[in-house]
Amino acid sequence: MSTMLVVRRVAQAIPLLLLLSVLIFALLHAAPGGPLAIYLENPNVRPADIERLKVSLGLDRPLPVQYLAWLRGFVTGDWGFSFTDGRPVVTRIAERIPATLELVSASLAVALLAAIPVGVITAVRKRAVVDRVTAALTVAGISLPAFWLGLLLQLVFAVWLGWAPSSGRSSLLGGGLGDRLAHLVLPATTLAVLHAAAWTRYLRSAMGEVLLQRFVLAARGRGVPARQVHYRHALRNALLPFFTVVMLDAAIMVSGAVMTESVFAWPGLGGLFTEALARRDYTVLMAFLMLSSVVVVVMNLLADLAARWLDPRVRA
Amino acid sequence: MTRRPAGSATIVALVLVAAIAPWLAPYAPDAVDLALRRAAPSAGHWFGTDDLGRDVLTRALHGARISIAIGLLAAATSVALGAVIGLVAGSSRRGVDAVLMRVTDAMLSIPRLPLLMTVAAILQPSVPLLVLLVGMVGWMETARVVRAEVLSLVPRGFVEAARALGVAPTRVILRHLVPNITGVLAVSATLAVGRSILMESALSFFGVGVQPPTASWGNMLYQAQAVMTTEPWVALFPGAAIFVTVLLVNRAGEQLQR
After folding, report:
1. In a domain, B139, yes or no
2. Superfamily of chain region A95-315
3. Residues pairing with B55 in the sheet
4. What residues does CATH 1.10.3720.10 cover in chain A?
5. What is the ipTM of this complex?
6. Cβ within 8 Å of A, B 192-221
7. CB under 8 Å to B87, separation ≥6 — which residues?
């Protein structure tokens, strides 16, 4: 893969990032009253205080000036201070990243462990009972509201059966690896279900297409054992588009974790977001939206480059 | 055309349920019965009662009206927006097309639930505004499929013939392109209904969507969260209603795609 291509792709991502920063900034400032609207209704906050806040936050300046100042800050890592506790937003976000990464990687693993074998089996045995049952289950999986699934799992496995703790990332006194894993099981499952269902469906159709190609027929004709045809010949080819989809979804998972983290009181970025939302902690909200969009764009870029690198046919 | 009924039948059934829900409900949605608070499901209250003694079945039926109405109207908004953007992008010069598609890419890159939650928290929308907001974050998929469909139609003779005859661009779109994209629009619309219902329920679950005392499935779950362990029925039924509705819509969408 040529360096030129990488440079070109990165260069293409920059206008996209600028555009979405404008969109996010515009949407949050389009509200009547702007970011301080929440204080306007609070009888304890005097109009003079609001004016003072406005000036100290630079909200009295023209919008384009504010945008440029905000953008410069975002790029240089100066994301402002949290309205809630006055600490730098960068610090508040950074301390939440490990928990979210832990949750997202666990969910990713669970979803892949389910989707790959089931996707292969259903593609190979189209219209068999396994395939029909899976089809019904995966439609159900993509239709489930994640927060309700989380509440149900919590009720059944934590409250009724007592098999797993209902919330948090670890017990109060820390606890070992077992304790951490026990806390991880329910939220990771909740977050994984949607993607496991979607990915199974995707792999089934990708694999189905590969199985129709001639080299598969040729392999079968040469007497290659069925297992080997499916896993060595067909699956490898289907995995390429599959992993592109997985990478894009993994980026979405980071923000998709908002619901799961809120239900299970998981101390990650999603939890920070809902806390910030409840208090209208506007600097944190802006940073979260911008950061999670950047993650999506970067993963898009990586997925594109990875696909080219892995597939000799599209290597330029 | 024989594949159409499945999808439309589901949508019609949903509209009917939403329309007649209040007459099916055994109680008034805000009728408080303090003597019968937090009652488990029984013959008098099939789905039990909540912490104010309100009938959960009644509220779920009234919630159906709000949730389904928002779902359908928001989906209609999304599909209309997406269709217009897709049609214009697909049939315009490269520059216009490129700009519209970059905006689509940008909107697709911003995680939509957090975006919507933030905007809703700031605006504290009324129900009509909520419909508009949910609709405005859901048009990108439609825009993409419509554009792709239009790009496949343009090289065919009839569009070129119409243009050569001097037919105005808007008329080419309305008379020659629109009739040919109804298939993808139908699929797109069905999927958008499911997504919009989920989106509204999530917003209301976080307390930034439909505001109490108006019942929606999402805000019933929001209120149920605290009492989940002792009165699970309060959370069970509204959640099941969301799940079943979205499931029906998604299955209808699948049948359309076949």
Report:
1. yes
2. MetI-like (1.10.3720.10)
3. B49
4. 95-315
5. 0.85
6. 194, 198, 201-202, 205-208, 221
7. B146, B147, B150, B173, B177, B178, B181
